[in-house]
User: Fold this.
Amino acid sequence: MESEKSNGCPLHGPGASVQAWVGRRLTGVVGSWHSYDSEAPAGPLDVWLIDDRESALRITTGSDWCLIVEVSEPHAGYDMGDAGRIAVEEIGGKTPFADHIGDPVLAVREEHEPNSGRIALELSFPAGRVRCDSWGGDLRLTAL
Assistant:
């Protein structure tokens, strides 16, 4: 049996317990993107799941490619000068979570690796699942 300590990222700690989200309804999704000049925005870099209790769960990737999951309110976008801009906005319809807004979370499943902590999170809804993981250091959201 793996110890609880091995589930935490060595750099970012264990993060939030997502089991508390079982039974809550997803009411919105906010995301952040990096855009540079006329290039299409990359991302999302972060997603915040908003529930029916107005709690926000931030999902992003760490510098060590772990999946960071923490309770955190969305921040405002900001300009980085020559390095581009970070936009933060409601993105419900632009993610695999779009079909599940208004639905309760039925179950959550996490995957961990001993050296990097959480590497994936799956949320199950009545009509399907959404997998969040780190792919090459980028946040990837997939409908299952």
User: Anything to note?
Assistant: The chain has no helices and ten strands.
